Amino acid sequence: MVCSVDHEGTGLLPSDNKLEIENRTQWHPAFCASMELELAENKKDLTYDREHNLSSEPLRIDLLIIKKNSDEVIRNEIGTFFLGHNIVEYKSPDDKVNIDTFYKVLSYACLYKSDTGAVDEILDTDITISLIREQKPEKLLGQLDKKYKVIQKGRGIYHIEGMLFPMQIVVTKQLDERLHIWLKALTRSMDLVQAEKLLESYDKLYDDEDRAKAKAVVNLVSDLNNGVFEQIISGGKSMSEALKEMILPELGELKIIIANKDAELEENRAELEENRAELEENRAELEENRAELAQKNMEIAELKRMLAEARGES
């Protein structure tokens, strides 16, 4: 992924942005997947455009969510204030969020509104902005509260009223885990209980498309919180085959090794049965020879007795 805004519109990225780009590359796909899972109840009512180009220059929105029917109500509390065009900017735990970040995201909405071709093709009354990150931006919210009106609409959801566009700041760390398991999963500080609930949520998904998105989330957070997931594995917690294959990438290789060992074992077992049959045959032949030898010994003894009688050696 490229950074949301390039350096002076040249398409060239300054060297001090390299770490940010790498971090966003790592977090961004999982975030987009998490948002789509968050809004899964309205899957048919929304379309998603990842890294939406704002202009011919490399200027991109992290996620653009378009509501197909303006009358449709989004059931997830993060999307209840959505209008027709919804700009979503995600900041990973490594990204800074300050007043300049705020105005940069605001500028995305302005550019999106203006760069549509026909005049007023997209109404400014039909655009919303969401800024999402893990930690609460205390300083930024304090600054905004002096100029606008900051209202907490729910755990971790802050609406900024009085702006050109409706805007909300979502703090994933504060969200209700029962309602937002996927967004809350985007963290480096996951505990054992949260990891187990995440895996349980994945296992309850039956839609292939949803499972693919959830896999992107689990793959990321299991790498970032590998100690917690190792505890689950080593603790012997019962897991489905799908979960095992996802969080244990070496399982496929292990299965091949086991299959080869099983084949080798079957081959050895067949050879053993063949040897056992041969041994039984040899044992039968030995018993036959032993009986024959006993009969010969009896015959020799009788001949000796008869010879002794003939000699008068009774």
Keywords:
314 residues, alpha/beta, disordered N terminus
Could you explain how this protein is built, in words?
Helices cover 50% and strands 15% of the residues. The protein is built from nine helices and seven strands, in the order H-E-E-E-H-E-H-E-E-E-H-H-H-H-H-H. It has helices at 18-38, 99-114, 138-147, 181-184, 192-203, 208-224, 226-234, 241-247, 251-310, and strands spanning 46-53, 60-67, 85-91, 127-133, 149-154, 157-161, 167-171. A seven-stranded mixed sheet has the order 1-2-3-4-7-6-5. A hairpin with a 2-residue loop joins strand 5 (149-154) and strand 6. The model is unreliable at 1-22 and 250-256 (pLDDT under 50).
Q: What is the H/E string? A: HEEEHEHEEEHHHHHH
Mean pLDDT: 79
Strand content: 5-15%
Helix content: 40-55%
Span of the ends, CA to CA: 115 Å
What can be said about the biggest beta sheet? 7 strands, mixed
Strand element count: 7
Uncertain stretches of 5 or more adjacent residues: 1-22, 250-256
SS field, number of helical segments: 9
Rg calculated over all Cα atoms: 37 Å
Kindly name the structural category.
Answer: alpha/beta
Largest sheet, order of strands side by side? 1-2-3-4-7-6-5
Q: How would you describe the shape? A: rod-shaped
